[in-house]
Structure formats: C-alpha cells, structure tokens
Amino acid sequence: MTRLRTVIFWRIVIVAAVSFLLSIAFTYYYYNHILIGQMMQEDKAKLSQTVRQLDYMSDDISKFTFTLIIAEQLQEFYKTYDQLDTFDQFKALQSTFKFVDGYKGLRKEVTSYALVLPDGRAFWNAAGNDDYFSERLKESWYLNFVLSGTEYGFTEPHLMFADQKPTSETTIISYVVTVRDIEKPGRTIGKFIVNLDYSHFQSLLDFSPFAHLAWLSDSGNSLYTKPSDKQLAHLVHDLEDAANNEGAFRVNNGYLLVDRFETSGWRLATFISQSSLFDRAKIVLYLLGFFTLVSTTLILVLMIPAILRITRPIMRLYNAMNAVSSGNLQTSVQISTGDEMEKLGNGFNRMTSQLRTHIEESIQHEKDKRELQMELLLSQLNPHFIYNTLNAVIYMAQKQGNEDIVRMVAAFIRVLQDAVRTGGDDSLVPLRDEVALLKDYIEIQSYRYADMFKVEWALEEESLHCLVPRIMIQPFFENAIFHGICPKDEPGTIRITANESDSLLLLTIEDDGIGIEPERLEEIWETHEKKSSPGLRHIGLNNTKRRLEHLFGSHASIQIDSEVGQGTRVSIRLPKLNQNNL
C-alpha cells in the first residue's frame, strides 16, 4: 500500500499544478477561438433559417404568379383586349378579375393585383379602370424596377391603398413579372403585378432573435431595418467587394453577418457587437473559472485519482453482485489492478462458477429423480402386457365383425401410448399431432356419451405446423363435456378453432353448454385436478396453466369467457413456434 500512496501523492501534486496553469491558458483560448466561433455559427444558422423562411415565402409567391400568367384566361386577355369593342373589353376584364380572384382567395398576403398592357394602361382589381393605380406606376418603386431590366422580381416597399375600401395607405411590396406569349415566347404582351401586404414579411423579421437586422434588395435598397438601423445598411454597402457580400466579416467593435437569398438577389444582414458576444459568453467564462478553481481544490483535498482507483473496482463488484442477486449467474467481473481488489474479483468469479455448477448438478439430480420415479411407475404398469391384451381384444372384435370395438380400442391404445411416453425433448409437439391424439380421445368419449355431442373443427392449415405443449387441449375438451354439455341433458356442440398471426397462435374451445357462473370460475381452476378420472393420466386445468407459464412465461395466456345458459369459450394464446425456432 506504500507504493500506492506514493503514486497517488505525486500525481496529486503534478495534476494540481499543471491543471491550474493550463486552465488559465485554456480559458483564454476557448473564448477567442472556440466560444466566439460557436456563437457565430449559431447566429449564422439563425440568420440562414430566417433567409430560408423569406426565400420560401418569395418562391411561393413567384410560383403563384407564374401559375397565373401562363393560364389561358390571362393569356387570352393580354392578347385580345385591344381587339374587342368596349362592351367586350369590360366583359373580358371582369371575367379575368373573377378568374384571378379565385386564386387570390388562397393567398392571405395578397392584397390586390393589376394587369398592365404594353402601352402602360393598368387595370387594378380594386378599382377597375380607375387611374389611381396608373398614377402609382409613375412612382420610383415601379420605375426603378423597369429600369433595372429585370423580367420578374420584388419592388421596394411603397405606400398605396390595399383594396377598394381604403381608409389609409399602407406599406405594400409588389411582385412584378413580365408576361410573354406562351405560343411566341419572344413576344412581350404585358406585365402582371401582385401587391403584397408588407407586414406579412415584417412580422417574420420583427420576431427574429437579432437586435440589428437589415433586409436589402438586389439593387442595394433597404427593404427593412431593425430598429430603423440605417447605419447597418450602409455598413453592408461598404463591403461590396468582400466575398460577394455574403458571409461573416470582422468590423469595428464586432462582426457583420450577411446571407444571400437563393431565388433572388436579396440579402439579410445582422451586426453582432463584441459586447453582446461577451454578455452571452460571460456566464460560460465565469462557470469555467469557477469550476477550474473548485476542481483544483477538490483534487488537492479529496485525492480524486486514489478514490477512482479504489471505487471503480468496488463498483464493478457491486454491479456484478446485484446481477447475481437478480438471478444472472453468468456474471463475471474483470479487475486488473494488481492489488487486493483484483484478488477479490477473482474470488467472486470462482464463487459464481461454483454456484452455477452446484445449481446445474441440482437440476440434473431432480430430473434424474423424476425420470426414475416414472420408470418405476411404468414398470409396475407393464404397458407391453396391456398393449398385447388390447391387441387381442381388437383381433377378437374384428373376427366377430364389431368395428365399433375395433375403433374404440385402437383409439384407446394410441391415447395410452402417448400417456406413458416419458423423457426426450417432446414437451412441445406439432398441433397436427396434438389434434390427432385429441380425435382419438373424442372417439372414446363418443361411445361413452353416444349422441350427446358433436365436434366442429376450424383449423388453418398453417397453424397445424405450430408447436404446442403435449395434451394441452384435452383438459379443456373434457371440461366442455363434463361441465358444459352433459348437465344440460340434450345434445351439444363443441367447436375447436386454430389460427395464427405473425407472432401468435390462437386456439379456442367453445361449447354451447350450461355455462359457468362467475364465482365458480376460480373454483374450477383450484379444484379440477382433484376430480381426475381413474385410468388414463389426467392433466388438470390448473396444471395446464402452470405448464404454459413454465414453458412460455408471460408470452402465453388462458382466458375463459362464460355466460350462464349460453356456453363457455376458452381462448389460449401461445407464441408462434415451429421446429426452426427451437
């Protein structure tokens, strides 16, 4: 233990001194190279998310507009309007307005729209031939768009009435697209203008997490600033030569983040000051410094390395012992510390190994004991003598032409052969074999209770290959005869069904007998075994239930549903097994 204490002491001294020095250097490095970078990446991701949302909105509006301009109704209006007389022009205009209104109702951000002919005449859906919108087209928002030579895109925000019932002008942003003849794409036949509620965009930007935000058009005009931060927009203009004005830029007192829209030339910019970065990071820095101080103190006071060296093997032994106490005797523990803990671990492994051996020997002893008892019983019964005697009875019955006796005794021999079968791995048999044995039992009972019952079978072919416990159905069939059919003094029907799903086999034994009162169901489970008939081996209902629990655990169940005067239904659910599953 002296060597262990010496190693622990020197490790404590070295770790305490080095960790304190490194923590100071790491804190400085972490803030300048890692923490700021992480915060910038988070802000870039938030900015990109806002850009994607705006980009999605603009792309959605673009698709909406292009869907309309290629529609036959609008194409026909632009190409034929000047060729119509006044009445037909009015009729065509109203028809086109009605067509577009059908689409406009699906877009809550669309306040109005206008059809503009090549000569500049404009038809605003809010006022028809009124000159109000034509006068708006002389303003800079539209003229700048036309001068840019752009085929389609968004204009600058501008003021105008939103609809035909104006109270005051509101801020609108318009989407303008040049309309071309779809039959002659080189021919321009007008423009289509969709006026959008600016607040639809503004609300998204107002709720962004940035204190400073600027939305710029492709021409550099400011579409939105927060909070009216014109200085931020000018700062973006000053960086025209930096990476196509997209990315992160170091500026005085902070960083500038700029992201560009995919579907347009728009840009979204935000300014993040050094002070705001420090405010966000200071809690981390304070915690880092605090934990550095605390951890150094704990290393010196509590001797963490020594504790870990001792407690880790102890925890392994503790977990292994818990596993053994829960019944997992395959547990072992690996401890390679080279000290007393390793000896304890090796002793634990020897103990569990000896315990497994003892339990396996005990199980084998009990199995041998049961087989010996069964062999002793069978030796007293001398089954070969019984088989020979019954075969002689069959021969005599055949000689006398009594086929009923032949069938009954042959069925009895087969049932008897199965009843005295022991050993081997035959606790589970195919349902086909179990049904064959049950039919022999039914053959015997049909002579004893002539014309008292009939049996209906509904067995799926696939289910006959599934494995079931031996002599599982017979106790329930016997119960249906003795407790269901016979007491009602008239013929009855017993129906046996079997079907399977992906993981379950469902067996039902149903009779139309007198039924069972609810308070007697539990009594049947408890007392049925005591009422076994002499002769054949009898397996009671309670024993059958225990066999299922032993073989399948919670994956198998027996349910009895009965109604007095109507009959009883026994449902058995088993895991779906076949020879390949074993």
UniProtKB/TrEMBL annotation:
GO terms, molecular function: ATP binding; phosphorelay sensor kinase activity
Gene3D superfamilies: 6.10.340.10, Histidine kinase-like ATPase, C-terminal domain (3.30.565.10)
SMART domains (alphabetical): HAMP, HATPase_c
Compartments reported by the entry: Cell membrane
CDD domains: HAMP (cd06225)
Membrane-spanning segments: 12-31, 283-308
Signal peptide: none
Catalysed reactions listed for this entry: ATP + protein L-histidine = ADP + protein N-phospho-L-histidine
Histidine kinase domain residues: 472-578
Keywords: ATP-binding, Cell membrane, Kinase, Membrane, Nucleotide-binding, Phosphoprotein, Transferase, Transmembrane, Transmembrane helix, Two-component regulatory system
Family annotation (InterPro entries): Bact_2-comp_sensor_kinase, HAMP_dom, HATPase_C_sf, HATPase_dom, His_kinase_dom, Sig_transdc_His_kin-like_C, Sig_transdc_His_kin_internal
The protein's Enzyme Commission number: 2.7.13.3
Domain HAMP: 308-360
Membrane-topology annotation of the record: Multi-pass membrane protein
Protein name: histidine kinase
